[in-house]
Design goal:
- The chain is mainly beta.
- 4% of the residues lie in helices and 38% in strands.
- The longest helix has 7 residues.
- The protein is elongated, with a radius of gyration of 33 Å.
Amino acid sequence: MPQRATDGRLLTKPVEIQIFRQISPPGQPYAVPFLAVHPWLDLKPAARTKFQHGSQIIYEDRLSPQQFDSELDNLFTFAVVTLTRSFRGRPRRSDVSNLARTELLNVSSPITGLRVVEAPHALKLRWSPPARGLSHKPLAPLSGYRVYRGLKQFARSPYASTRSPSYADNQFDFGTRYFYSIRALFAKNGYTAESDDSKPTEIIPRNIYPPPPPNGLEAVYAMGAMQLIWNPSTAAGVAGYNVYREGNEPPKRLNSSLLRTPTFQDHTVIPGRRYTYWVTAVDVNGNESSRSTSVTVETR
């Protein structure tokens, strides 16, 4: 949407939008005189708000199945003129926009079978390749797919592209609701076209993945206590550690609360016995790692 007049001042009057359209056979250049006829569509200020999304106007020229079949492979040329009206209703027209041109390609029906599966470091998407076109004519060559992601069901801008019917998204936040949809992308004669959106698939990734176990555990018996030390975890989100022991008893956790530092003293050992220790790491979501390499020490 234009925001300023040609003299640089902000527009204060309501803006009317006129869209011009020409349909021509492939290979035929556009004819500029189509801009001299009546506009194909006239969006008055009151109707324009329905199609305004932020600073953009998005209007869909939807064709019936019969129109789609009859116009397939033809070239569509569009241009836009905006105007304001004075208090007497006289229009002040802008210059003509750039001309936007595309060939009407035979695209597929919406992609089906979209699935989103959570993995430790990515959300993995898979879907079924397109099976048939909107017309009975041959499909335009498939050039890949566009992935759309949003916090609402339908995203306006593509999030990623891929040439295979799968995609791994590793840029996400746990606990955030995401909606994904896929469009098949087709290309021919330098023009591209997308299928309609697939049915959106929703996912809220949950962090259920434990951190790696600590390493470097050492234990020394001295002064009537077992001194344990291990390397601090470098994994993101680690909140602390647990220490476990087994001897002449079932395995048990020795610390009553999470240890914030990688050290521990066990004062409950009895001289003349063998004890085995291991430690685990716990992240901020309460996920506990597998056990570290254990160490066995005899108290003498």
